[in-house]
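Co-fold these.
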Amino acid sequence: MNAEIISVGSELLLGQIVNTNAQFLSRHLAEMGVNVFYQTVVGDNSDRLLSTIQKAEERADLIIFTGGLGPTRDDLTKETIAAHLGKKLVLNDEAFKGIRQYFLKIGREMTENNKKQALVLEDCLVLPNENGMAPGMFVKSKNKFYMLLPGPPKEMQPMFEKYGRPAILNVLDRQESIVSRVLRFFGIGESQLETEIEDMIMNQTNPTIAPLAGDGEVTIRLTAKHRSKETANEMIDKVEKEILNRVGEYFYGYGQTTIAAELVQKLKQQNKTIACAESLTGGLFQSMITAVAGASAVLKGGIVCYTNEAKEHLVDVSKKTLDTFGAVSEQCAKELAENVRKKLNADIGISFTGVAGPDSLEENPPGTVWIGISEKGKESKVVLLKLAGDRNQIRNRTAKYGCHFLLRTCQ
Amino acid sequence: MNAEIISVGSELLLGQIVNTNAQFLSRHLAEMGVNVFYQTVVGDNSDRLLSTIQKAEERADLIIFTGGLGPTRDDLTKETIAAHLGKKLVLNDEAFKGIRQYFLKIGREMTENNKKQALVLEDCLVLPNENGMAPGMFVKSKNKFYMLLPGPPKEMQPMFEKYGRPAILNVLDRQESIVSRVLRFFGIGESQLETEIEDMIMNQTNPTIAPLAGDGEVTIRLTAKHRSKETANEMIDKVEKEILNRVGEYFYGYGQTTIAAELVQKLKQQNKTIACAESLTGGLFQSMITAVAGASAVLKGGIVCYTNEAKEHLVDVSKKTLDTFGAVSEQCAKELAENVRKKLNADIGISFTGVAGPDSLEENPPGTVWIGISEKGKESKVVLLKLAGDRNQIRNRTAKYGCHFLLRTCQ
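Predicted complex below.
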């Protein structure tokens, strides 16, 4: 089954809002094994909407609309579709009851135009709106399916999950299961990763292998189709294994996880605590860690030692080190990591010092980064990175490299 | 002039990412007086892209593409357009130099597929990419204009603002000037702000007044049209003055600034330094400050005291305070702010303690936030907030409230 998403609303064409609806629906449809080849945004204009529908009918079996179901004059999605399909609009008692109750609840009088929201296409399956007034609709006409959903994501998303998705699955009568798995990598560029598995990408059929770069990371989505869900999973297992044989050292987790979340989980498992001294990253590393619920079990705390004064007085970096080697140095990173670990009585200390830019510092260009790691009873490690990008890309990638190295430390 | 936006990328059709590019470009085009009647998303598939281009040519004068300019095999936007327009792809020396320099800088070997990124359409205006490798292009063919932009927003947005927008304005030959100004507010909700200026919004004509909420903030975009740019600016000045008369206490800056950037600038002007003790925010406040270039002039540093142990040993909060009032208390916030200021010898100390959730802490529900501010020679102030939202919304809004209160302190 091929689907197409048509989002209706001039506010989208004026750039006033982002079309998160198209993403939400596309992700669900992909998981359901429904191909989406086009997403279109069109304004609150009946002629242009009609021509968009006609084009979509040439290439899709299922057309999903979002927006234009509201009470005002410029909401015309269902009116346009009704005229196009030759279907009447009829009052839906359930929806009308809901609208009247809503106005009772907020203590305002219902204006006449709100009644329009309770009109639905004849012969349609009504999709109840539990978070708003306008109901959704699902209707078949000449072997094509049409689903109408409201525009506000807070209404559309729960309606689709509870009523829209099951309605589509019901007509899919699927023979095959579709299984998807996302592998997440850090520390390797998209083109390098693709080069490493180029032969696999060239010869991909089932599972498909789709790399994607973003936010300093790369993901690979593996998708397999098979009658048996178990077999589809085994097919993915096999490809995953081969990929990890080649680039496994950069792999850190599956799906929607973050490298910081993986680190927090790993530290919890090993019952280890960390303490941080952040110069270059200025709190960003600890902020990533504390964004994870439950971080308090592993993060003892830390120091943002943005100035040399703070490095010396709060983390006891020796004046000699700062004078002889500078703040952007292996020695400084080492002392920061060791001292912050001891100060906070943690198992592992980690430090970040370097140059985020835009200006150079102590004759080091932006992107020069030292990360120190000190573990109780072990020799300290210090890593030098040379990162490209602007100030915030350098800061962001440095903090993620911190997670990356700590994950390796905990292997 | 009518424009159409075509975003190319299977990751959009799979719902892996949101199409913020279409919003960004639509907003800019609306401001430039260019109508956008359609946005389309199509996958990395040459045939489907071609049919989308042909449809767009029927209804638009300018077609803007985002995505598909990268190094990998599935990036095929420019190849498809070149074949369609009968234009060759030629190596752009400037872009190729940039790509080689990038790899030299990061100390990795350039894989062969990266060279592809330096190929551009013959006879095009090359739009330099100052934040990545693939350049953009602007080309005319048979009275239609085509603009090709990279997919990653961090590359596309600055490229469009610096090179794409002027190139379009240049062919528009416009008689009127269009002037836009964005006012940024924090600490007031969208609906409250809209209520305060409802009469102005109802009666808007020129300038237009467009409020927009996002990321815990509200912006108002004022746009005026006039033959004289000076007069358009004066028209905006007048409306801005009236708005700030009503909700000025929440206003913090113009355009693309951030509340942290405004704070850093204000502190610099007043030659003041700050020190921070972060419990709840776990480094996020300092990370926002250090994201601003030049933050080292105002941020002495700080302590992430996520545990009570760290509060006691690193920031000298008295055991009695922690035992009697708890960590989530006015007293604790006060001691944290005062002690961190003294420890780092700063002019102002600021502290954050509270509950980000998902769990309650010391019988306080998530969203309970204390912010302490201590100024040399003045009595300390402590503010209690009760914020709604999930863990990261609470953290984010708390850090921004920190900036908000410090900006007021520096008035």
